Amino acid sequence: MVKNISSFGRNGVHDFLLIRASAIIMTLYTIYLVSFCAFADISYVSWTQFFGGTFTKVFTMLALVSILIHAWIGLWQVLTDYIKCAKLRGFLQLGVIAVLFGYFFSGLFILWGA
């Protein structure tokens, strides 16, 4: 078995479960948003009230984290499958991690910032 620093001790079953769990959360969040859009009169006021609620904020952050987990596992698998040069792969993985952290903190500040 090949050990890699970017695998963080995961295995295929762990990745499989994370992908499936994150997909379920993203599906539920999509249904939540679509149902709001279908049954509400969408205006600036209703939209800000909808996203001002604590449940929506928490659910949005959970969906964002699920998207980031889903993206990391998928991109990690693609990079390890197709980029054979270890230095280039490590550099690209570092870049992906930086972008994903940027997305996380952007979402955090947008949702919970003043």
Automatic annotation (TrEMBL):
<keyword id="KW-0812">Transmembrane</keyword>
<keyword id="KW-0479">Metal-binding</keyword>
<comment type="function">
    <text>Membrane-anchoring subunit of succinate dehydrogenase (SDH).</text>
</comment>
<dbReference type="InterPro" id="IPR034804">
    <property type="entry name" value="SQR/QFR_C/D"/>
</dbReference>
<dbReference type="Pfam" id="PF01127">
    <property type="entry name" value="Sdh_cyt"/>
</dbReference>
<keyword id="KW-1003">Cell membrane</keyword>
<dbReference type="InterPro" id="IPR000701">
    <property type="entry name" value="SuccDH_FuR_B_TM-su"/>
</dbReference>
<comment type="pathway">
    <text>Carbohydrate metabolism; tricarboxylic acid cycle.</text>
</comment>
<keyword id="KW-0997">Cell inner membrane</keyword>
<keyword id="KW-0816">Tricarboxylic acid cycle</keyword>
<feature type="transmembrane region" description="Helical">
    <location>
        <begin position="21"/>
        <end position="46"/>
    </location>
</feature>
<protein>
    <recommendedName>
        <fullName>Succinate dehydrogenase hydrophobic membrane anchor subunit</fullName>
    </recommendedName>
</protein>
<dbReference type="InterPro" id="IPR014312">
    <property type="entry name" value="Succ_DH_anchor"/>
</dbReference>
<keyword id="KW-0472">Membrane</keyword>
<keyword id="KW-0813">Transport</keyword>
<keyword id="KW-0249">Electron transport</keyword>
<feature type="transmembrane region" description="Helical">
    <location>
        <begin position="58"/>
        <end position="79"/>
    </location>
</feature>
<feature type="transmembrane region" description="Helical">
    <location>
        <begin position="91"/>
        <end position="112"/>
    </location>
</feature>
<keyword id="KW-0408">Iron</keyword>
<keyword id="KW-1133">Transmembrane helix</keyword>
<keyword id="KW-0349">Heme</keyword>
